[in-house]
Amino acid sequence: MKCALITGGSRGIGRAICCSMAALGYYVLVNYKSNAEEAGNTMLQIKQNGGDGELLQFDVADKEQIRQILGSWIETNGEKHIEVLVNNAGIRDDSLMAWMAEEQWDNVLKTNLDSFFYVTRLVLHGMLGRKYGRIINIVSLSGLKGLAGQTNYSAAKAGVIGATKALAQEVGRQGITVNALAPGFIKTDMTEGLDEKELKALIPVKRFGLPEEVAHAAAFFASPEAAYITGQVLSVNGGLYC
Ligand code: NDP
Q1: Which has the closest alpha carbon to 142: 165, 167, 161?
Q2: Pick the CATH number of 2-236 from 2.60.40.10, 1.20.140.10, 3.40.50.720, 3.40.640.10
Q3: Does any ligand 1 atom lie closer than 6 A to the CB of residue 203?
C-alpha cells in the first residue's frame, strides 16, 4: 500500500495537502502535535471524499518521539510504504532579534528545521530501497527574502531550502525528487492575527492565498510525471517577490 505522510496535517495547509494526496490515491498518514479534534476532522474529510488513512501523533520537534512513534510505525507496517513525504509542520514565534529569547530561537529551529532531518532520514531508507520517492518541504517567502522580526523563522526556512537542494543531489539517481514550496501569505491559523487589508495591497494578486492553492502545487511535485523536477523552490505567493 502506497502512503503519503504529511506532518502538521491537522489544520491549514497540511490539511489541504492531506486531501490532495488522498485524491491522488494515497493512504494518508496525518501527523499532528496535539489538536486531536482537528486531526480527526482532516481524516473525516479524507474519508468523506472516498480516501483512507490514519492519524499519527508525534511532536516533530522531538527527535525521540519521531524515532519511537514514526520509527515503530515503519517497522510494524512492512506492507505500507511511504512514497510521499511532505514536511509541512511549522510554527513561528516572532520577535526582533535584540529581544528574542533563546527559547524562541530553539523552538522555531527545532520545529521547522531539525524536524526535516529527523523525519526525512527515517523515511528515506524505504524510498532508497524501492528507488522511488517524492519529498516536498514547505518553506516560506521568509526563508528566501528574510523578514524583520523573523530571524529564527527565516533562518530555519532558509536552512530547509539549502537541505532540499543538497538532498536532491544525493538521491536523484534513486528516483527520489526533493523540492520545496514557498508560500507567501496563506489564510490559515498562522496568519490569523495579521492585518490582511494592509498586507494584501502589497500582493500583485491582491488577496491572501488559500491552503488548497498550496496543495495543488504539492500534488504537482508529488506526481510521477514530475520526475525530472528536483532541487527546486516553487513560490506560491500571488506574485509577492523578494
Ligand atoms: P497552522 O498554524 O495553520 O497549522 C500548523 C500545523 O502544524 C498544525 O497541524 C499543527 O498541529 C502542526 N504542528 C505545529 N507544530 C508541530 C509539531 N511540533 N509537531 C507536529 N505538528 C506540529 O500553519 P499553516 O498551515 O499556516 O502552515 C503550514 C506550513 O506552511 C508551516 O511550515 C508554515 O511555516 C508554512 N507557511 C505558512 C504560511 C502561511 O501564510 N500560512 C506562509 C509560509 C509558510 P496541531 O494542530 O496539533 O497543533
Answers
A1: 161
A2: 3.40.50.720
A3: no
